[in-house]
Structures are given as structure tokens and as C-alpha cells.
Design goal:
Shape: globular
Structural class: alpha/beta
Strand content: 15-25%
CATH class of the largest domain: Alpha Beta
Bound molecules: NADP nicotinamide-adenine-dinucleotide phosphate
Order of helices and strands: EEEHEHEEEEHHEHEHEHEHEHEHEHE
CATH superfamily of the largest domain: Medium-chain alcohol dehydrogenases, catalytic domain
Largest sheet: 6 strands, mixed
Number of strands: 16
Helix content: 25-40%
Distance between the termini: 13 Å
CATH architecture of the largest domain: Alpha-Beta Complex
Number of domains: 2
Number of helices: 11
Length: about 350
């Protein structure tokens, strides 16, 4: 089959399009013809080797995908599970024992991909393969963080850092869907303009504004709760950036506020300032991955037009290297979709 392949860590010049052995369908597996695969923030990290996760070389990038079943393993074909050849699916890409697709198991930027049938999720008729492929990792994670873990509601003012990415654009839409007030950060005005179109109430341009000062100007400076002199600050911060933004964010959160994290794009061991956590009785809440039920919930929201995936571009397989370079250059808003069979 035709696939995007890299044999060692490095820049996008390590990726080539070439022939790769077809996936072998085990008895409990299916093979899927990949019609669309989406890129995520972790694709450059896996390519560059910055996560510390073991990479099985030769490696194919791409974690999220949608397509149709073209082969059923013997046990799948014989089971009363309802799966048939030609069914449209959008798998949950995390496989216990193998890891995340595109991270520690082969990715899906290829004509075909193999996955155990227990990870299959049906793509609703009303959802295109391009939209379905955009959802699992970014939108599933955002849904769990905002809804299940964060319980973001209409009364909340939410600050979303790096809101221009796949997770961030979904967090923005989910926050607006419940009526929250949303402040977003992004590193260029053209990106912030797009976030305003998606409903952002306030924007902070991190290329020219200082985060803490700008957030205080919008939401006020937090004041200590136990003195009775409360007020100021945001209720919720979505911070998967880490790095120097971590300690800065603590200075923007109101007393008893929630800071939610699912990642650390700019560094996972940043300097912090614990005084803010006790003084303002802050809540730091982690969120990791998403369940099959949460992925179905997101697919249903897209099917009913309650949520629209933000698609930056749809491209053929041979455009995957420049598309990953765009992620490295922070030159996109939303998700890039690659169609490996075009
Ligand atoms: N735990 C989980 O299950 C899980 C699942 C999915 C994702 N994640 C994590 O969630 C985070 C977001 O993922 P993603 O795919 O949406 O996007 P991402 O590529 O990590 O980027 C999100 C945004 O962060 C900003 N950014 C990128 N590099 C940066 C840097 N070095 N310093 C500061 N800001 C930077 C960019 O916005 P601007 O340039 O506009 O600032 C970008 O649009 C990642 O850390 C990812 O690993 C975790």
C-alpha cells in the first residue's frame, strides 16, 4: 500500500511517500480503507522524537482516521457484532497494549489501517469522513476536558490558551455552546480573527501582548477569597501549553477557579508558584484521552450540527510533510485532513 513513512526522528524531510506492506488482519481485527486522516499536535512531536515514547520504525504518522471496512478478521466475521464489509467507521485510536495510533503503533496516513474490532465506532450518515477524521483525538479530548472533567457552564468565564489548535477550537465551540464567556489566546491576528468568527468574546495576541496583563485587563485581577474581598480572574483556564504559561496562568485564575490540562506543548516541567494554589484555593484538574461514549457524543453533536469541526485544509497524501511543517510553524487554525486514497 501507499503510505507516508519515516525511518528515524527528525524534521519533515525524514518523511517520504512509498510502498509499505499491507496490514495483516488478525482474527479479532478489521482492515479499514482510510478515506481521511487528520493531523494533531503530537504528529510533529512523534516525528521529532520529543515525547520520550518509543517509536516503532519504520513509522507511519497520523492518529485519527475514518473510512470503510474492507476486511474482517475470522472472529469478527463470525461474531454477532453487526460489523460488515463496507461499513463506515471512525475508530477510537487508542489500543490498550499497543498504545495510540500514530504514537506507539503504526499511524493511518496510508491507504489501509488495521485495528481490533472492539475499537470500531460507526460514522453517522450525516457526518463526512473528513469531519469524522477530525474528531477523535482533538475533539474527544476537548469534550472530556470541558464537559466531563471541567463541567464548564454558562456562568463561567473561560480562558483558552493556544485556542487555535485542534483541541482549542473545539474547546471554544463547546464553551460557547453552553453560553460561557470565552477569552482566547493565539499568536497572530489572522488566527484570532478566525476565533472571533467562531464566537470568542475576547482575544489576546500573544505575539504582542503579555498574558497576565491582558487577562487582568479583561477579567480583572484575582483577589483573595477569605477576606471577603473577592472578584476578578477567570473561572476556568484551559492550559495544555505548559512551559512559562503555567505560572502565568495561576495569576489569572479567580479564587476556587479550575485550571484544566491535557498536555504540555511548550514543556511539561515548568517553574510554578505554589503560593497561588493555596492562597486562591485553586483547583488543578487533569484530563486524559476520552472514552468511546465521549467520541460517540462528539460524532452526534456533529451529526446534529451542534458542533462543526474547524478544517484548515484537505490535502492528498503527498502534502503531508508540508502540512506537518505548518503545525511546527504554528501556521494553522483547526485541523488538517489528508486523504491517503486520492
Ligand atoms: N492527554 C490527551 O489525551 C491529549 C489528547 C490530545 C491532545 N493533547 C495535547 O493537547 C495539546 C493541544 O493539542 P493540539 O493537537 O490541539 O495542538 P498543538 O499543536 O499542540 O497546538 C495548540 C496551539 O498551541 C500553540 N502552540 C504550539 N506550539 C507552541 C509553543 N511551543 N509554545 C506555545 N504555544 C504553542 C499554537 O497556537 P498559537 O501559535 O496561536 O499560540 C497551537 O495552535 C497538546 O499538548 C497535545 O499533546 C492531549
Amino acid at each position: 500500500m501507499r503510505a507516508a513513512i519515516f525511518d528515524e526522528h527528525g524534521g519533515v524531510d525524514k518523511i517520504h511517500i512509498g510502498e509499505f506492506p499491507d496490514p495483516e488482519c488478525g482474527p479479532d481485527d478489521v482492515v479499514i480503507r482510510v478515506n481521511a486522516v487528520s493531523l494533531n499536535g503530537f504528529d510533529p512531536m512523534i516525528l521529532c522524537g520529543t515525547t520520550g515514547l518509543p517509536t516503532p520504525f519504520p513509522m507511519i504518522p497520523g492518529g485519527d482516521y475514518a473510512g470503510e471496512i474492507v476486511e474482517l478478521g475470522a472472529n469478527v466475521a463470525n461474531a454477532a457484532n453487526g460489523w460488515e464489509l463496507g461499513d463506515r467507521v471512525c475508530p477510537h485510536p487508542f489500543v490498550p497494549g499497543e498504545g495510540m495510533t500514530g504514537e506507539t503503533r503504526l499511524g493511518a496516513a496510508a491507504q489501509f489501517a488495521r485495528i481490533p474490532a472492539v475499537h470500531l465506532i460507526r460514522t453517522p450518515d450525516a457526518v463526512s469522513d473528513d469531519d469524522a477524521a477530525a474528531l477523535p483525538i482533538a475533539y474527544g479530548t476537548a469534550y472530556r476536558m470541558m464537559v466531563t472533567r471541567g463541567k464548564v457552564g454558562a456562568a463561567d468565564t473561560v480562558l483558552i490558551l493556544g485556542a487555535t489548535g485542534g483541541v482549542g477550537t473545539c474547546c471554544l465551540q463547546l464553551a460557547k455552546a453552553v453560553g460561557a464567556t470565552v477569552i482566547v489566546t493565539g499568536s497572530a491576528q489572522w488566527k484570532l480573527d478566525k476565533l472571533m468568527e467562531l464566537g470568542a468574546d475576547h482575544v489576546i495576541d500573544t505575539s504582542r501582548e503579555e498574558l497576565v496583563k491582558a487577562c487582568h485587563a479583561i477579567a480583572g485581577k484575582p483577589r483573595m477569597g477569605l477576606t471577603g474581598d473577592t472578584g476578578g480572574g477567570v473561572d476556568v483556564i484551559i492550559n495544555y501549553i505548559g512551559g512559562e504559561t503555567w505560572a502565568q496562568s495561576l495569576r489569572c485564575l479567580k479564587p476556587d477557579g479550575r485550571m484544566l490540562t491535557c498536555g504540555a506543548t511548550a514543556g511539561y516541567a515548568p517553574p510554578t508558584d505554589i503560593r497561588y494554589i493555596w492562597t486562591y484555593e485553586q483547583n488543578i484538574i487533569g484530563s486524559n484521552g476520552w472514552t468511546a461514549e465521549e467520541q460517540v457524543a462528539v460524532l452526534d453533536m456533529v451529526a446534529t450540527k451542534a458542533l462543526t469541526p474547524v478544517i484548515h485544509a484537505i490535502r492528498p497524501l503527498d502534502q503531508i510533510a508540508p502540512s506537518i511543517q505548518e503545525l511546527i510553524d504554528r501556521a494553522i487554525v483547526g485541523k488538517t485532513i489528508i486523504r491517503p486514497n486520492e
